[in-house]
Amino acid sequence: GIQVEQSPPDLILQEGANSTLRCNFSDSVNNLQWFHQNPWGQLINLFYIPSGTKQNGRLSATTVATERYSLLYISSSQTTDSGVYFCAVGLPGTYKYIFGTGTRLKVLA
Amino acid sequence: NAGVTQTPKFRVLKTGQSMTLLCAQDMNHEYMYWYRQDPGMGLRLIHYSVGEGTTAKGEVPDGYNVSRLKKQNFLLGLESAAPSQTSVYFCASTNPGQDYEQYFGPGTRLTVT
Fold first, then answer.
1. How many CB pairs under 8 A join A and B?
2. Is B50 on the interface with A (CB under 8 A)?
3. Residues of A in contact with B103 (CB under 8 A)
4. pLDDT tens-digit map of B52-111
5. Would you call the peptide bond into A8 cis, given omega within 30 degrees of 0 as the criterion?
6. Helix extents (H) in A11-97
7. Of B17 and A92, which is predicted with more confidence?
8. Which chain B residues touch A34 with a CB distance below 8 Å?
9. Which of A75, A78, B10, B107 is the most buried (most CB within 10 A)?
């Protein structure tokens, strides 16, 4: 089955720093989402981005489906950005999503 | 508009007991999903439904049953709980068409002793 790997697994930043999180997938996908799981466990939609680039405030994402990866950029990080970031890919011909392994981010004040 | 809600928020079961988790959505979504999340891991799909009256198995379906009698509700049942089912359970919903953006409920934390 498809493998979805995220890197780095853990990241510690000083407040104000920028970061790039990566999601690699081993096969073709028909959609891709990025989520932030906050320290209380809530899953928050960040981007639905099967291809191309999107921006929302300090966050932006790029998916290059032909090369099987997606990137999430966080600029001017804040302590509230702490938590775990997941990508999830949709499998063609199905209605299923497969989640990546996650990147655990800690932003220090 | 409450989005996706889950009942209960917390539950402790003894091994062998049964229970049902309820997921409800008010967005008129066709597709609904049940996931489990174990400590330090991503979410794994248990079962899903692509419409009222339909269900299908995901990655880790063993030990669980589901029902979708009404479009807005998706029930997850544990007939005989085991300690290995201790986890946080998330429900999600989405609509086919232009996109399949998933919306998640707040989760149910289940402990089986």
1. 52
2. yes
3. 45
4. 999 999 999 999 999 999 999 999 999 999 999 999 999 999 987 656 788 999 999 999
5. yes
6. none
7. B17
8. none
9. B107
Q: Which residue of A has its CA nearest to B43?
A: A99
Instruction: Say whether A102 and B58 touch across the interface (CB within 8 A).
Output: no
Q: Which two tokens stand for residue A66?
A: 């032909």
3-state helix, strand, coil in chain B (%, to 5): 5, 50, 50
What residue has token string 């291809």? A51
Structure tokens at A107: 């932003």
B52 close to B69: Cβ distance less than 8 angstroms: yes
Six token digits for residue B100: 């399949």
Rounded distance between C-alpha atoms, residue B72 and residue B94, angstroms: 11
B4 φ, ψ (degrees, to nearest 5):
-110, 125
pLDDT 10s digits, A43-82: 999 999 999 999 999 999 999 999 999 999 999 999 999 9
Name the residue among B42, B44, B100 with its Cβ closest to that of A102. Answer: B42
